[in-house]
Design brief:
- The protein has about 120 residues and is an alpha/beta fold.
- Helix content is about 40%, strand content about 40%.
- It is built from 4 helices and 5 strands.
- Helix 1 packs parallel to helix 2.
- The longest helix is centred in the N-terminal third of the chain and has 15 residues.
- The radius of gyration is 14 Å and the shape is globular.
- The model has no long low-confidence stretch (mean pLDDT about 90).
Length: about 120
């Protein structure tokens, strides 16, 4: 697959922030150029943001090299702002990767194979 797309939605109701993201293909540096300011605007003025995120990686194929560095910088900058992250995937290595990432993340992160299960968990 050579397709590439990223869809990001951020909804804010007072201090409650819900972010959804769907990634198709490889993440690129240009995706992070969109993601950083989008999230910065969403949390602007919130003293202690607690973002809940739903991330669909079913069609994710990895990172371009520069985007890997961007991902690291994103994690450092926004790690404390996320409270829960639900990741939807369909590969065993993704599930293992999410479990390993949980060791380094402030957010409670879980892997799901269904969007419905992920949404139920996020809303708890």
């Amino acid at each position: 697959m050579n397709e590439h797309a990223i869809a990001i939605t951020v909804n804010r109701d007072a201090d409650d922030i819900i972010m959804t993201m769907k990634i198709v293909g490889k993440l690129k540096h240009s995706d992070y150029e969109l993601l950083f300011p989008t999230l910065e605007r969403a949390i602007e003025g919130v003293k202690q943001p607690q973002i809940k995120a739903l991330i669909d990686i079913v069609d994710f194929e990895g990172y371009e090299l520069r985007a890997l560095w961007d991902d690291f910088k994103f994690g450092v900058k926004f790690n404390n702002e996320f409270s829960k992250i639900a990741v939807i995937g369909n590969k065993k290595w993704e599930e293992i990767g999410i479990k390993m990432a949980n060791w380094f993340m402030h957010a409670d992160t879980h892997y799901f194979e269904s969007k419905e299960d992920a949404m139920i968990w996020l809303e708890k």
